[in-house]
User: Fold these one by one.
Assistant:
Number 1:
Amino acid sequence: MVSHVDHTEHDVRVLITEQGIADLRGKSPRQRAELIIENCAHPDYRPLLRRYVELTPKGHTPHNLAKAYAFHLALQETGDMRNVKL
């Protein structure tokens, strides 16, 4: 969850980062989130991101705004998003 997006999830088919590649074609939003976490997120953040997805309501798009912005609050308060309390 980010505060600004230039491309919708429908425009992104393959995501490539320093950590790996996630082929998102034909995947649901939840499947896309899981692929991105496993293949593209930094290993330090994977457990936190998995936990975030677990805490999101079931449905089409997994979002929990309070939990998403908790990452940003942790950064503001401690200087490191990994200090988030989910």
Number 2:
Amino acid sequence: MLVLSRFLFATVFCVTLVSCATSPTGRSQLVLFPSGQMSQMGVAAFADMKEKGKVAKAMGTSQYVSCVAAAVTAELPSSYQKEWEVVVFSDKSANAFALPGGKIGVHTGLLDVAVNQNQLASVIGHEVGHVLSQHGNERMSIQFASDTGQQLLGALIENGQQKADLMAALGLGGKYLVQLPYSRTHESEADLLGLDLMAKAGFNPEASVEVWQNMSKGSKGEPLEMMSTHPSNKTRINNLSNNMPRATEVYNAAQQQGKRPRCVRN
């Protein structure tokens, strides 16, 4: 009982000290884990994915994706300026992800939906926006503070099955029903951050709407938004469109500064 009391006291003390954080958009966050620890977990998860997944061999495709990613990540704050590792995975799903520790993964299926450099920049900017906003940390912190916090602690030490919880908290799969509203908030926040990043890099922000229009055409019906961890395509398009005037100003300024990416898929 004494050990449990000490644990609870330490937990409350930790939450009091480090839970107060603010996202790049000014939203209050619950963030409990050190950024260094998140980076270590991101690096480990990415290594695991490279080992178990199928890395695309087409050099031209990898160079194209890396070109877009390099231009986007160059616009990140100085604390995130690093050589980001970019890997293209042979996978038919239209998906991409970014992890703490400077890791970006893109599925080949995404290139059938994001059909040019501007559309691809929109998706990569969105995924990097998750890292910039510490969404993985926030997901884990929320889970830690919930009634399944003990299970997540097991994941942190890679205790068997609990490793799946860690991957889910980093955004690589799984559903936590308690987090549905937060996940939709994360997605909308990442959309706007990605819009800003791509515009700063000199990619046409209007492509962010185009790629979701492509997604809508390729989808076979969407789940109700209230039952999904993601906003509907219509909601995303509306949010992006509402923020397009400012993004266009940023884009025009970047163009005047000579930021004109020329990433070509061979």
Number 3:
Amino acid sequence: MVQRPIPTSWNVYNLLRSPFFQQPLESGEQTPRPLSLFVGREAELKRLRGTIHGAGENATVQAIAGAPGVGKTTLVKELKALALEDGYLTTDSYVAILPNDTPEGLFGRVLGALYDTILANRPQSGDNSAMADAKVLVRATRLTSGGITLTIPGIGGIGGTHGTSVVTPKDLLIDGPRVMRDLTRMVQTSDARGTLLHLNNLENLSESDAMRAAEILRALRDIMLLHNGLHYVLVGTADAVNMAVNTHAQVRSIVGTLVLAPFTIDEVHALLRARYDHLRVDPTRPAMSPVDANAAATLYDFFRGDLRGLLKALEDGVGVLIGLDHATAQPLTLDELRPVLQQGYASELAALPEQKRIAQLTKWGTTAPASVQTQKSLGTLWQLSQGAVSTAVSYLTRQGYVVALPRTGTNPIQYVLSGVSRLIFG
């Protein structure tokens, strides 16, 4: 029995559901957000893909940097889908670089990701001796935070003999590189061209954690990043990637960095049209745009190229107004959307528990909403010390009301109001 989809309010526009989802696209056509909806970034994909192909049997490390919401994660997913077609092993998962990370911790997670990637793509390889050695180390890192007594073939012994050893985190940096090298050699002698791994989470690290990531990458450069046939994509904000990659010349010399520019408005319109077409309820009828082109363009300008912010604003505004302002479905205008968004976002701001932060943001938003500020200028505006300003700005940035612009050289960090704040204060 074929079940028909449960109706939603988006059916008014001949759409199955909201086209303004903010989650990354997914592999496979049967998913709610298939990668076939990917648009744009042709030049970026050509560069990333070409670097991997051009390396031959060598290793590559490429960093993708950009503002939050610019589309970094979806770009990596599309790159991995193309890499699979090209004969490289990869998976949909990523390895997170964590706050307070250690070389042993990151190496263990990367070794585990390499093992999982090979096993997922070539299940028959599980009995290979390199995979058997890797499984022991991966199990030790995942099942215990300290040492674990295991019978380990070929580790801590000679010529593949079996012995009982205690695997501690530091052992990973002794035996792990050899195991990783054996895994990459196994891949290179198979029908695969290499392996692609995704390192992520630099977007969510503090400045001190990003500096720690720089030290960790330097420590792991030779033993983790330079194995033949192993390709890495490192993803984060421009500042975090710059700090992690460019602090030490040893790392900078092996990493190529691609800075993602925001989509053009034409690319945004193309992305929306692809989603509308994909989500049609009746394939014989065109889907109607829930928002007119000028409204989308103006809101995108409010969010300064933050595609994720734009999509959330469209979902927040259109979702409330479906069927209310017109007897028949029509694209909503900015004049219709903006009051709804302003009221909704102002209510969210008023509900914050930190009333003094609301007052500080309001003073900025009502005096100079389009201004670019530094901690020094905000100290003057708010009559606060630099330490108090730093605390306030950090809080407002975490809540999504302030955006830190990429730092240029040694200049102070500059801050602007986010799209949400600009909608609240006009």
Number 4:
Amino acid sequence: MANAERVLNRTERLFALVLLLQNKPNLSSRELARHFDVSRRTIFRDLRALTESGVPLTYAEGGGYEILDGYQLPPLMLSAREAATLLIGAEFIKLQPDPSLRKDADGVALKIQQVLPDEVAAYVVRLRDATVLDPYWLHTSEATEDEQGRWYELSEAVARQRTTMLDYYVASRDEVTRRKVDPLGLVYYSDHWNLIAFDHLRQDIRNFRLDQIRWMRVLQDVFKKPEGFDLAKHLDERGTGPQNQRIVLRFAGQAYKWARKAVPAKVEEERDRDDGVKEVTFYFENLDYVARWLHRYGTQVEVVEPPALRDKMRDHAASLSALYA
């Protein structure tokens, strides 16, 4: 059994080694050993095994190993666990509001199932039939025909660095504005997709909700990313931006246990008070969004600051009171 396990692990490593060298050539034996957490001697033995099996390995002039262009791996091979992970991931994508994403997810799932061995395919089908991601999802979408496919178009614009024109609805002013933007990344928050882009009108990097885009057109103009821009770093630093406001909340009981998963920003501070209340601090720019998010927790949450957010919560409570008076 131990010998069989070692063979399986090595087979997986050889497969991963080919994928790695095809996507990131010119890696040295030391770098490969560090990546796979094995000795350089093991890497040399693996490289020799690949060469003997017909993989066209070569050593680049600049140092490091690479695979000659044109080599293709055999048909896709997935373990039951890997196949299940991909197909359940496709089911998550089908919960998205964009119908084009759901259609693509169905196509991916079908292709994966077609290449699986019968035993693995049967396993995946049993798992899929016994897994429900959202029992109350009605499999409907309010997206118009013009709105469909927006995520895919913007992902192409991000990847190809193409400037894009938007007609964007600004809820705070109840108006639609024309924007020329350079798409830099796509981010999914708790319930919607957002485009992070350089806004030519504001001369700054801004956030645009995809469901607030009324019309868009990807142009042929190619833009350059702002020097040193990193999407993850940008999102982490948003709390220090001038448009953000300091938000302090106090959660009672077990409410924060559930709210913590949906906080729309990096939590700067968490403090346990003597009365059992959790005080939380973070920075965010959209107070309307925060107010809508907090309503679900009712009297289990109190807004400490800013005053503008307290006003929004009070006005909403007054509206509810008037409705049910």
